[in-house]
Amino acid sequence: MPLGEFALIDRYFRELGIARDDVLLGVGDDGALLRPPPGFDLVAVSDTLVEGVHFPVGAAARSVGHRALAVNLSDIAAMGAVPAWSLLALTLPSVDERWLEEFAAGFGALACEHQVALVGGDTTRGPLMLGVQVLGFVPQGQGLRRAGGKPGDLLCVSGTPGEAAAGLALLQQTIRMPAAPRTTSELDQAAQQLRRRFEFPTPRLALGAALRELASACIDVSDGLLGDVGKLAAASGCTAIVDIERLPHSAALSALVAAQRVTEQAALRYTLAGGDDYELVFAVPQAQRARLHELAACESISMIGELAPAGGTEPTNVAQLRRSGRWLASEELAALAAGFDHFAV
Ligand code: ADP
Ligand code: MG
């Protein structure tokens, strides 16, 4: 007999994540009762994943559970906040207990890793869709914003953007692997690593918290590095200048190029416009350069460019690319950055 809605909630979601003292009342009542700590601002974020839009149809349930929470934790990280509570609006086409178990395992493991409690939600029938909200705290007045960057600030990014988009292309077989006997173990390992970057992204929470003292502006990379750098620059009233030579190097992406699975140009496109990276892009005042180097010793950080006065560069896009000190022509820029936008196709 299929599990009823209440039994389903009870079995999979009543005690998911960590138990926290600041949850006075969690799953089971009409609402959760939560007690924020004094002296902190509350940060609220929400992100929805739709099957076939944000993850491939038939994607592994554990990965879907992980990503549904991870994309929200990434927004919390970009605000410099620490996550605490989450809500889950689940729309399911049918009750598939094996799927639910795996989904809950993916969501729950990441929630425990970051001390997040699941305090409520909603369960309905319909096309597979996961709506998640996360609430977190930041010391009063210290939340990081997209606005606040100044001309001259250094532009930095964490990790190796582009890997997740290549991983998704491998999962969807837009990038094809050679037939088994011809696959080298090095190429296999690179492909596996790239798929994992899409399926199990790492929200940069420790970095986000450390940036409260350092960064003038911050954003997470969900829609593609160049586009998101542009959003930070626009909110800060600046132009972003990114040097292609300084982009972080991905060994796994290079392995695909070396094995002629993708061209060098396509690899650069993944890095600049791929999306789904959930890395942080941030601006750091020049005066903080020494502390930035200290932080870079324990976090993977690349300095990729700088902020300039708005309209002070030629041509005048909010995000501008330089190669060997020369501006890329706008057609070349458009070809590289052509979006993986949800409405583009
Ligand atoms: P109501 O009808 O009052 O909105 P529900 O019957 O929808 O309540 O939900 C009962 C309880 O279960 C509520 O505390 C709600 O927050 C929680 N809940 C429902 N679905 C989920 C879910 N997918 N994950 C976590 N909690 C859930
Ligand atoms: Mg009610």
| Alpha plus pi helix count | 11
Radius of gyration: 21 Å
- Average pLDDT, to the nearest integer? 93
The biggest beta sheet is recorded as:
7 strands, mixed
The overall strand count is: 13
**Bound small molecules, deduplicated:** adenosine-5'-diphosphate, magnesium ion
Rough shape? globular
Distance between the termini: 41 Å
Taken in chain order, the helices and strands follow as HEEEHEHEEEHHHEHEHHEHEEEH
Strand residues, percent: 15-25%
What does this structure look like?
By secondary structure, this protein is of the alpha+beta class. Helix content is 34%, strand content 25%. The protein is built from 11 helices and 13 strands. The strands form 3 sheets. A 7-stranded mixed β-sheet has the order 8-10-7-11-9-12-13. A 4-stranded mixed β-sheet has the order 3-6-4-5, covered by helices on one side. Helix 4 (163-171) crosses helix 5 (185-199). The chain is globular, with a radius of gyration of 21 Å. Residues 339-345 have low confidence and may be disordered. It binds adenosine-5'-diphosphate and magnesium ion. Adenosine-5'-diphosphate binds next to strand 4 and strand 5. The site of adenosine-5'-diphosphate (ADP) has 13 residues, from strand 4 and strand 5.
